[in-house]
Amino acid sequence: MKARVLMYHDVVEAGRADESGFVSADANVYKLETAQFAAHLRAIAKLQTEPPRIASDLLRETSPHASWLLTFDDGGVSAHTRIADMLEAQGWRGHFFVTTDYINAPAFLTTQQIRDLHARGHVIGSHSCSHPLRLSHCTPSEMGREWRESLNVLSDILGERVNTASVPGGYYSRDVAVAAAESGCKVLFTSEPITRVHETQGCLIVGRYSVQRHTTPRAVAGLVNGQLAPGLRQALIWNAKKMAKRIGGEYYIKLRVALFGRGALRSGEQKTKSEE
Ligand SMILES: [Zn+2]
Prior knowledge:
The chain starts with a strand and ends in a 9-residue tail after the last helix. The strands form three sheets. Strands 6-5-4-1-11 form a five-stranded parallel sheet. The chain has helices spanning 25-28, 34-47, 55-60, 78-89, 111-119, 140-158, 174-182, 217-224, 228-260, 263-267, and strands at residues 3-8, 11-12, 32-33, 67-74, 95-98, 123-126, 164-166, 187-189, 198-200, 203-206, 209-210. Strand 9 and strand 10 form a beta hairpin. The protein is an alpha/beta fold. Zinc ion (ZN) is lined by residues 73-74, 127, 131, 168-169.
């Protein structure tokens, strides 16, 4: 089975990246302005006659025919204040993956907004409890807690079992999938730019194409429509970034140890010229 899935984050007013979700230079790269997002939806609608599917369709799906889906990570308040209305204007529904420690925090969804999105037909899923910096480097018990508790919090809010999740920060590994499956997750969305859906311990693993501020309407419409070139291009960019993250993370730790000895790992944040 194949699925072409777009991964968005927040949609904000021009120049107001602080309006919704996590705020940092890294996070802001993934925030689209309302007019940009509207242009994306128009470009997709022009090429797609079918509405996007939802995760439960994938659980029932057996045909190899590709479907397409829209997902939004982090649980920023723009899911409710901007995105849902814009999707519904097309007759579409999306997936909103909520970082549960941030529910009711400023710029994030409230409990009531989560219930409302669900009632309007959107899918609510987990994006972990705390959005760990590098989930794939957590211990299995930490991973298990992140998935189990976040799925429980959302299930309690909605009064029905939540069984969909997305991996925070793109740090996917088989252990991350196993921990999600053991926590009752049935469909796990990653940031791997692939369309082939596979299964780990009864949980469907679904790749996604990451949409950034600079991604053009033409590129997203092409990705949804299954044109290879932009997907391939994104795969290359993404893999390069993933390698830098992995190697960078390990290298950074080795560098600290080389410079300061093992105590550097505990002593935290002292900075020197040679590190900057
Ligand atoms: Zn995230």
